[in-house]
């Protein structure tokens, strides 16, 4: 029996066996009061540490490992963070005004910024807390007199409180067997990099890194979200059998990923990818995606300066031309008071999740929005581009955007710039208002995309980041299932397609239910596309429609999930556990 079993959130599937390699210690150091005379020395120590970190990152950029070359922009953003006034400037101010040592000032500043990001509603921007914490760890190491040892020679499982892309890039990619962190989320850089490297990864691991001993053998089970510390012979034998079965299944899923996702009774579903930024485009070649169902545009806005129209056009055109002739659906800027842009002073609000975010923010800051829309119209001449509006609650918002687009097309014609004559315009269905008026909205739109993450958040009136109510984030709750059915039916009555781009699209329970509802497209992280397509080919719509009917009569989410699990295990056998990655209850493969 293993010495201990600890649990986390699986963000990249697979199984790995290796020795633990600690990468960072926690950001905890001395808490020392200083005098007026020693303030300059503490300030200089922090400035030197920041310069040392920037120099190390520059060296990393110059020697980028080939498998990670597309992540150079992320490392460049880390370099900017090492001089960002919100981090470095605030820490220096704390040294001066509170007369505390550099380590203490840095720790407090990092925690303050992490709390700010964790309070944001968008999962991508919320996970940017990881960038801040990882930079804090690097600065803390430099203040302590140098970088921490990088875990020793040879392949192993990386263990850290948190990781940045630069941390991974400083290592040989082939030496990384798996990744375990105490922090992070499904859209964190740890998750994105692990999926790119095709290694299993768990984030939010309980008891890490205290429970993990450096050099100890560990099994990382990215299928069920658990970690076995110091496994015995029986554990190792079971792991070897499961790993062989999973890798054989995954090879088959990837080998057939170019085939259409067509159910057993001939119904075809488009399976697309969600992309965080242009660096992930290289994932498309091997996953068999039918285009991009969600391209988040926030990444370009996270620098010190707001991007101009030409810079945005260059990014969007590159993405559109790369994906052509398949379609790219760009979600327009989804930020607000809860996710303030570094270069834009957004209003502070007492309840930002219900405040000026998404389309509300864009219509309130129209010049910023117009620059993005002009870039998207121009990119439409380079490929197959569609626009998607977030946080819609009223058809008037859609009509306002159509009016702006018409004005911008006239502007671009006057400037003599090539642009799309018309771009398909859709909305994210993620608010109760959008659900209840789906029939009206459908008459204003070319397509719907259901964002199940926020939809559950708003329907259940919960903060996903609040651990006390996290158990209520359940996409199989009767209110959620009935809402999904209502939206799909309303879209089809008005003759427009509907897709799902939230995490429910890669949950096997979600795939089965959505097929039964008549969904037109699913969109998920590239890593999950082959498995989704493989699963769809194993199902038939009549069986799934019957499953929908049964679930709609269920009294609660627990009963619904148990019923679906039983049906899918009978239909899919062992494959069900492989498909359930990132959705399993800890300890329940």
Protein model, in words:
α1 packs across α6 (129-143) and α3 packs across α4 (102-118). This protein folds into three domains: 1-20 and 149-255, Phosphohistidine domain (Glucose Oxidase, domain 1); 26-147, Enzyme I, Chain A, domain 2 (Orthogonal Bundle); 259-579, TIM Barrel (Alpha-Beta Barrel). The strands form two sheets. It has an eight-stranded mixed β-sheet. 49% of the residues are buried. Helix content is 46%, strand content 13%. Mean pLDDT is 86; it is low at 148-152, 342-347 and 582-589. The chain has 589 residues and is of the alpha/beta class. It has helices at 39-62, 72-81, 85-98, 102-118, 123-126, 129-143, 165-169, 189-197, 233-255, 284-287, 309-323, 359-364, 366-379, 395-415, 432-436, 438-442, 452-459, 478-493, 508-517, 529-538, 541-552, 557-572, 575-579; strands at residues 4-7, 9-12, 15-22, 156-160, 176-181, 201-203, 217-221, 226-229, 270-275, 292-296, 327-331, 384-389, 425-429, 447-450, 498-500, 521-524. The longest helix has 24 residues, at 39-62.
Task: Summarize this structure briefly.
With 589 residues, the chain is of the alpha/beta class.
- Give the overall form: globular
Share of residues in strands = 5-15%
Question: How many separate structural domains?
Answer: 3
**Helical residues, percent:** 40-55%
- The CATH homologous superfamily of the largest domain is termed Phosphoenolpyruvate-binding domains
Topology:
Layout: E1 4-7, E2 9-12, E3 15-22, H1 39-62, H2 72-81, H3 85-98, H4 102-118, H5 123-126, H6 129-143, E4 156-160, H7 165-169, E5 176-181, H8 189-197, E6 201-203, E7 217-221, E8 226-229, H9 233-255, E9 270-275, H10 284-287, E10 292-296, H11 309-323, E11 327-331, H12 359-364, H13 366-379, E12 384-389, H14 395-415, E13 425-429, H15 432-436, H16 438-442, E14 447-450, H17 452-459, H18 478-493, E15 498-500, H19 508-517, E16 521-524, H20 529-538, H21 541-552, H22 557-572, H23 575-579
Parallel strand pairs: 3-4, 4-5, 5-6, 9-10, 9-16, 10-11, 11-12, 12-13, 13-14, 14-15, 15-16
Antiparallel strand pairs: 1-8, 2-6, 3-7, 7-8
């Amino acid at each position: 029996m293993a010495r201990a079993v600890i649990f986390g959130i699986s963000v990249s599937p697979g199984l790995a066996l290796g020795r633990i390699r600690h990468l960072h210690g926690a950001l905890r150091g001395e808490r020392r009061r200083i005098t007026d005379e020693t303030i300059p020395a503490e300030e200089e120590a922090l400035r030197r540490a920041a310069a040392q970190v920037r120099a190390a990152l520059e060296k990393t950029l110059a020697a980028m490992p080939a498998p990670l070359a597309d992540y150079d922009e992320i490392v460049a953003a880390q370099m900017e963070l090492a001089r960002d006034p919100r981090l470095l400037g605030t820490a220096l101010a704390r040294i001066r005004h509170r007369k505390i040592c550099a380590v203490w000032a840095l720790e407090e500043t990092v925690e303050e910024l992490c709390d700010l990001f964790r309070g944001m509603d968008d999962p991508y921007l919320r996970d940017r807390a990881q960038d801040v914490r990882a930079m804090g760890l690097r600065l803390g190491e430099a203040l302590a007199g140098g970088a921490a040892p990088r875990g020793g020679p040879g392949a192993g499982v990386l263990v850290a409180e948190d990781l940045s892309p630069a941390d991974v890039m400083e290592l040989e990619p082939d030496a990384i067997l798996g990744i375990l962190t105490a922090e992070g989320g499904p859209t964190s850089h740890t998750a994105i990099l692990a999926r790119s490297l095709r290694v299993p990864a768990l984030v939010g691991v309980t008891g890490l890194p205290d429970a993990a001993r450096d050099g100890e053998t560990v099994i990382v089970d990215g299928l069920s979200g658990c970690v076995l510390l110091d496994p015995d012979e029986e554990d190792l034998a079971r792991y070897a059998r499961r790993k062989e079965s999973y890798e054989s299944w995954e090879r088959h899923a990837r080998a057939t990923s170019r085939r259409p996702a067509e159910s057993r009774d001939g119904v075809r579903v488009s399976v697309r990818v969600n992309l965080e930024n242009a660096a992930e485009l290289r994932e498309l070649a091997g996953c068999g995606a039918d285009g991009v169902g969600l391209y988040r545009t926030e990444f370009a806005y996270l620098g010190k300066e707001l991007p101009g129209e030409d810079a945005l056009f260059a990014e969007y055109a590159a993405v559109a031309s790369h994906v052509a002739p398949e379609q790219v659906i760009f979600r327009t800027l989804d930020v607000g008071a809860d996710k303030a842009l570094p270069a834009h002073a957004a209003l502070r609000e007492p309840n930002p999740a219900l405040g000026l975010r998404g389309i509300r923010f864009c219509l309130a800051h129209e010049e910023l929005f117009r620059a993005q829309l002009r870039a998207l119209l121009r990119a439409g001449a380079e490929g197959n581009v569609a626009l998607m509006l977030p946080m819609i609650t009223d058809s008037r918002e859609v009509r306002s955007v159509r009016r702006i687009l018409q004005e911008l097309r006239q502007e671009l014609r006057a400037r003599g710039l090539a642009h799309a004559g018309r771009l398909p315009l859709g909305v994210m269905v993620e608010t109760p208002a959008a659900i209840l008026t789906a029939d009206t909205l459908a008459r204003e739109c070319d397509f719907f995309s259901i964002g199940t993450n926020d939809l559950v958040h708003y329907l259940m009136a919960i903060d996903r980041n609040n651990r006390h109510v996290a158990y209520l984030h359940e996409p199989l709750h009767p209110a959620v299932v009935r809402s999904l059915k209502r939206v799909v039916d309303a879209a089809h009555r008005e003759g427009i397609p509907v897709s799902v781009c939230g995490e429910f699209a890669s949950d096997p329970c979600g795939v089965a239910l959505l097929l039964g509802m008549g969904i037109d497209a699913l969109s998920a992280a590239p890593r999950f596309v082959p498995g989704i397509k493989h699963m769809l080919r194993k199902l038939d719509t009549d069986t799934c429609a019957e499953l929908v009917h049964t679930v709609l009569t269920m009294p609660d989410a627990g009963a619904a999930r148990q019923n679906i699990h039983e049906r899918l295990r009978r239909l899919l056998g062992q494959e069900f556990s492989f498909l359930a990655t990132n959705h399993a209850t800890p300890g329940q493969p």
